Structure formats: C-alpha cells, structure tokens
Amino acid sequence: MPRILIRTSLKDADLQDDFEDKVAQKISEVLEYPLELVYINVSTGNRMINNGKKTPMVFVDIESVNRFNERVNDDYTKVFIPFFASLLSMPTNRIVVKYHDAKVPDFGVVRQAPEFKHAEYYIALKE
C-alpha cells in the first residue's frame, strides 16, 4: 500500500485540480498496486529553501511495501522526477523524492469486501 506525502512551497491554487488523481494513477502504474491502495496527502504553502533560495520546490516521500532498495531506487527516480517536474512546471533540481521501504504490519487499515476488491493486500481483522 503506497503512502505518498507531498510537501511543496507552491500554493494550493498553483496545483491542477486533478493533481492528486494524476499522482495516484502514476504511483499505481509504476509501483504496480491497485489504485484503491494508493494514499496521498498534499501539503501546500510550506516555507522551504533550496539552493539557498526561497524558490518553488517539492519534497515527495513515497512509502511502500517491498518496492524500494538501492538496486531499483535510481530507476524510480528516473520516472518520478520528470513526472513531477512536468506536472508542477518545475525544474528537476527543485524536486526531492525520498523512498521509504515498509512492511505490511507497519500500516493499520481496515478494508473489507465488497467495496474493496484487493483483500490480499490487507491484514484481516479478527473479531
């Protein structure tokens, strides 16, 4: 289950109305998880500095189960940095992506059929 935290100095009005939808779709596609498992939090208007200046920038933290390690992270970077640069109309040197590898028990979440189809990704709750 990917959890994405996006912090940016951009204002809310600077983001496309479907920003979260596009990010969720890309994460689902690249990390090969069903869209219903992608969780996104966007925080805009943060006070940030990069390269010693208060220029627009973004931090993207991506946490997921069994997807990240030193062999594959560079490949993900080659996908995610250009994606966010295009989506935010921002130079690539103002985007920082941090990968966090997690285990299934690190997440506490309740999902049940029929509304959620991918039960294999969840730990069952015992009554």
Neighbour order of strands in the largest sheet: 2-1-3-4
Q: State the separation between the terminal residues, measured CA to CA.
A: 23 Å
- Whole-number total of structural domains: 1
Which superfamily, in CATH terms, is the homologous superfamily? Macrophage Migration Inhibitory Factor
Query: How many helices does DSSP assign?
Result: 2
Overall pLDDT score: 91
Helix- and strand-based class?
alpha/beta
H/E topology pattern: EHEEHE
CATH architecture: 2-Layer Sandwich
Percentage of β-strand residues: 15-25%
What do you see in this structure?
This is D-dopachrome decarboxylase. One of its GO terms (molecular function) is phenylpyruvate tautomerase activity. It comes from Mytilus galloprovincialis. InterPro entries: Macrophage_inhib_fac, Tautomerase/MIF_sf. It is an enzyme of class 4 (lyase). There is one protein chain. With 127 residues, the chain is α/β, with parallel strands linked by helices. The protein has one domain (3-121): Macrophage Migration Inhibitory Factor, CATH 3.30.429. Helices cover 23% and strands 21% of the residues. It has two helices and four strands. It has helices at residues 19-31, 73-88, and strands at 3-8, 39-43, 58-65, 95-102. The protein has a four-stranded mixed sheet, covered by helices on one side. Helix 2 (73-88) links the parallel strand 3 and strand 4. Helix 1 packs antiparallel against helix 2 (73-88). It is globular and about 45 Å long.
